[in-house]
Predict the structure of Chromatin remodeling complex protein RSC6.
Amino acid sequence: MPAKKTDAPTAVAKPNGLNKPLTPSKELAEIVGADQLSRGQVVSRLWEYIKKHDLQDPADKRNIVADAKLKPIFGADKVTMFEMNKHVAKHLS
């Protein structure tokens, strides 16, 4: 039996927390740029920066070693990739 066609309008996807445009802090903007970005874009650009500058701990790739630009964001010399989002959230508005 074919699916029934209705005249009801289709639902439009609402932006979620990952798609909402956010403004990075001055410190974070030095890495990801000053434009408004979604949280997903910020995380993606951070990983590009981390990999480009070889900031993953060679002994445990889950750990990120902060350089001079990341230290003000993380507030520590080393964070895990799981903690990273918590620190980055404080730099987005």
